[in-house]
Design goal:
The structure holds two protein chains of two kinds. By secondary structure, chain A is of the alpha+beta class. Chain A has four domains: 111 residues, 3-Layer(aba) Sandwich (Rossmann fold); 74 residues, Dna Ligase, domain 1 (2-Layer Sandwich); 128 residues, ATP-grasp fold, B domain (D-amino Acid Aminotransferase, Chain A, domain 1); 162 residues, D-amino Acid Aminotransferase, Chain A, domain 1 (2-Layer Sandwich). In chain A, strand 1, helix 1 and strand 2 form a beta-alpha-beta unit. Chain B contains no helices and 17 strands. In chain B, strands 1, 2, 3, 4, 5, 6, 7, 8 and 9 form a nine-stranded antiparallel beta sheet that branches. In chain B, 27% of the residues are buried. The chains are: A alpha+beta, B mainly beta.
Amino acid sequence: MFPEWMKGAPTPFSSVLVANRGEIAVRVIKAVKEAGLRSIAVYSDPDSNALHVEIADDAVHLPGNSLTENYLNSEAIILAAKSSGAQAIHPGYGFLSERADFARDVANAGIVWVGPSPEAIETMGDKISARSRMIESGVPVIPGDEIAIPEGSDHMGALASAAARVGYPLLLKASAGGGGKGMRVVHEPKMLRTEYEAAAREASAAFGDGTVYVERLLTGARHIEIQVLADKHGNCIHLNERDCSLQRRHQKVIEEAPSTAVSNDLRKAMGESAVLAAKAVDYVGAGTVELLLSPNGQYFFLEMNTRLQVEHPVTEMITGVDLVQKQLEIASGIKLGISQDSVGINGHSIEARIYAEDAKKGFLPSVGTLGVWIPPSGPGIRMDSGVRQGDQVTVDFDPMLAKLIVHASDRESAIRRMDNALSSFVALGVTTNIGFLRNALLHPSFTSGSITTDFLDSTPIEEFDPNYSNPKIIVSIAASAKRLGLDKSANILSSSDEGDHSGHSGDPFKTLSRRLP
Amino acid sequence: MEWEIADLEDKFSVDLTEREGKVTISSVTVNGNTHEFPEIRISKIGKNSTISLETESGTRPAHVKKIEGKWWIHLEGEVYVVNEVEKGGKTSESAGGLSAPMPGTILEVMVKEGQRVREGQPLMTIEAMKMEHRIVAPKSGEVISVNFNQGDRVDMGATLVELGD
C-alpha cells in the first residue's frame, strides 16, 4: 500500500530501510513514519537497544564486530533490505551514503535509492574529478594541484614538488574525504611527511582510500554552503546558505542560516553557482555545495556533498521545507513542486553539535553512561538526538550525540535562545562540549557575526573557559547529595527516571511551521 | 571523607547537618583551612536528580547524580565531577606517567626507552572514534619506559609512557 501523496509516482515504494545509526537514523525514521511508510532500522551488536531501533517499525541485525562488517557492509545491508521487504534505502550521512558502488548495487537489486545517481556520487566524491568538472562548468575552484598522491611508497618526491608549487601553508586532503577526516594543514615543509602519513592513514581507515591531494590553505575565509534540491525531471533549486565557519580542525561546531556575510546579491550568485554545480552532474535529490568565501567577497567551490548534511535542520527551520520528506518524494519520481522564487528566509536558525568530548583535555572523546540526559525544550527549540538517558557512550562510533537547533525571528534572539537552551541542557555521566559550545556562542567574535574558519583553532582555549561556580558550593552539593542518599536510588539507569523530560520526546518538526512574531 | 573536584588539586571536607531532608552546611575545609559557610542549605526536589540550592544570592536548582562511582553535578549550565576520597588517600594520577586519555588503539609509537624528548614532542598516536590523537610530552625529559606497542588496545588511564627528568 502506497500513501496518498505518492499516487501517480513513477517509482513508488511503501517501506524504507535506513542504513545508518544515531541521530540521523532517528531523524530519517521519524520522517519515513510521518510519510506513511514502513520504517526499517539496521543495527550492530552495540546498538541492539539504541533509540533508532526502538522507534523503527522493524529492525534487522547486522552481525560482525567492525563497521566494515556491519554499517559499512553494502552486501549485508542489501540483504537486510531484501529479507525485510524494504522497497527503498535511505543512507543518511556518513557510512555508505557517498559510495557510488553501493548506490549502484541498491538499484541493481531493484530497490529505490534515496539519493543521486552513482555517476554523480562518483564524480563529486572524488575531489580531484569534482574540481575538474567544476572548472569545465565555470564554477570557481580554490587554487591547488590536482596531482593525486596514491597511498604507498615512493610518493614523497611527487608530494614535495606539488607542495612547493602550491605553496605553504597548504592543505592535504583525502580525495575520498569528508567531515575533516583525512585532512591536515601543513605549515612548513618539515611537517609534510608526518602530516601526509596521518592524513593517508585516516583516509584509508575512514574511506578505504588513502589518496590525498594538495590545495592552498585560504586564511580568513568563511565556510558557506548552499543547499540544493533537484528532482528527476530537470528541476533544480537552491535553499539559501548555511554558514559553518565555526569549525575545529575542519569539524563543524556551530552552524547557522542565514549567514551574516552573505548579501542578497552574493546569495543569488552563490545559489546560481551551486545550481550550476548540481546540474553539471545531473544531480538528483538533496545535496550541498560547499564554498569558501574569502575576505574580499570571492567564493570558491570546495566540494559537493551528495547526501543529506548533518546541519540540514537550520535550512529546514528558515525555509520551512522538510528536506527528508523532499528526498522521499524525489526518490519516488514526484516533481519538486517548489519554484526558486517561492523559497524565502524566515527568521534565523542556529545548530550546535553536542559531542561526547572534553574541551579541557584537547577535545578528546569521552565515554561513559548517560546517567542524566534532560534536553531543553520550548518554543523554537528542536532536538535531533540519537541517544537517551541510560545509554552507553563508547569508542565504537562517532562522538556526536545530538544536535540542538533553535529558530527565532532574528539572529540576536536566536543566540539568546541557544544560550538558554544550552545552559538548561543537563547531560551527566559523560563529559560533553555543551559548556564549550555556550562559550563559543557568546564569544564576541561569534555574536558580532565575524568569525572565519580559522577562528577556533587560532583562539586560545582560555577564551572559552567557563564561569565556574565556587568550588566550595560544588563539594557542598556532592556531600549533601550523599547525605540525602541520592546515590542509593535504585534505578540509576532507568530511562523513565526523569519522567517526560528524558530522551527524545521532541519531534524534530514540532516547531518547524511555527509562525514567529 | 574528603572530596576532590576533577581538574582541581584541592582537597575538601564538608561539615554538615541534616534535618528532615534539608542539609545545612556549617563549614568547608580546603586543604586543611576551614571556611565558615553558614548560608548554604540544600534539599531534594521530587524523587529524581534535582536538588534545591539556597545561598545568600537566592535559590537555584541543580542536578546531581552518582554515576559509575563519581558525583556529577550540573549547576547553572556547567558540569562538575566530584570524587570521594579516603582521608589521606592517594590521588589517581601517577607522577611522571602519561596515561591514556581515552580507550583506543595505539597507532604509532614515536619514542624509545632512554630517549630524551623535549616538551611538546609527539610520543604516541592513539586512534579512537575514527580520529587520531597525538600524545605529546608535557615536559622535557628522558623516556623511562614505553609500555605499549603499535596495535595494542589500551584502556582509559593506562600508563603509556613514563617520563623522568
